[in-house]
Design goal:
Layout (H helix, E strand, L loop, with lengths): L7 E10 L5 E8 L5 H8 L7 E3 L2 E3 L1 E10 L12
Antiparallel strand pairs: 1-2, 1-5, 3-4
């Protein structure tokens, strides 16, 4: 099993966006399963510019690539107390 601290990469989501540009559904279709929930949670409140056909907004479904990085960040302080 891969440790969460070393997990990074991409998740591909199939996202349905309504006429107002709001995400109405999303499912993970590729990537590491441990990152699915975080990727899905991150896009649920995104708002897109509506997809226009002949100047009219349309509902659209598209694949969306979400990058993630759960690697540990080791920070060192150079300050001396």
């Amino acid at each position: 099993m891969m440790e969460r601290s070393s997990l990074y990469g991409k998740v591909i989501l199939k996202v349905c966006v309504d006429k107002r540009g709001r995400v109405v559904s999303a499912i993970a279709v590729d990537g590491h399963p441990m990152a699915y929930a975080a990727a899905l949670d991150s896009v649920k409140d995104w708002i897109f510019n509506p997809y226009l056909v002949n100047g009219k907004p349309k509902r659209v479904t598209a694949d969306l690539e979400v990058e993630y990085d759960f690697r540990s960040r080791n920070t060192k302080s150079d300050s001396k107390e």
